[in-house]
Amino acid sequence: MTTDRRTQLADNLARVEERISAACAAAGRGREEVTLIVVTKTYPASDVRLLADLGVRHVAENRDQDAAPKAAECSDLPLTWHFVGQLQTNKVRSVVNYADLVHSIDRERLVTSLSAAAVRAGRKLDCLIQVALDAESGERGARGGIAPDGVPALADALAAAEGLRPVGLMTVAPLTGPYEGRARGAFDRLMEIATDLRAVHPAANMVSAGMSADLEEAVAAGATHVRVGSAVLGVRPGLG
Ligand SMILES: *Cc1c(COP(=O)(O)O)cnc(C)c1O
Fold it and tell me: Residues where N6-(pyridoxal phosphate)lysine occurs (predicted)?
């Protein structure tokens, strides 16, 4: 059973690795410019352990209730943990215990509570601002994220917050609105926002974009990190 699962994960990882390599080659980018983050949400700690053994170094989760026990079970592994889900302020004290990076910063109130929790836990957190490309000015996206014009102020808030630092931007290609079915256009827009951000915060150079269905478009646009779940672990039952 475990051997079968290991082989399955190894095969899937090899296929994803080929896709990333091919996308990098097509874009004239070096393979080392793109980091694979495997999104392990809904899958058990035993899979995380197998992935670590297969060489995966970055994993991501989107729900604290699942992530906290899983990260605790895997604390002996050489992994960097990314939190990529919508984050409630009442979860930040738990998340700061295991997350090394949070990709889903989308409001100042979250910066305030995350900063307080990080200081209290004696941790430093790298933070990405989640951009909702389909959100109107001043609003948030249906799947989280701040409208593009809110990015500068939120980045300044992160830079000023103790225990946190702004390291870049994250997006999910919109399922509706002007970018529906246009992942490449969405990721190109994210890159423009990222360039503006870097002019003010030079260290904020991470661009987290691209999932199982659209990692090629993200790599072509210039993403530095792709977040791949189902292509490695299998299709999740139900919502995840
Ligand atoms: C689930 C998830 C992913 C991975 O999606 P797949 O389609 O399974 O590759 C990436 N990013 C976020 C924010 C997610 O919630």
Answer: 41
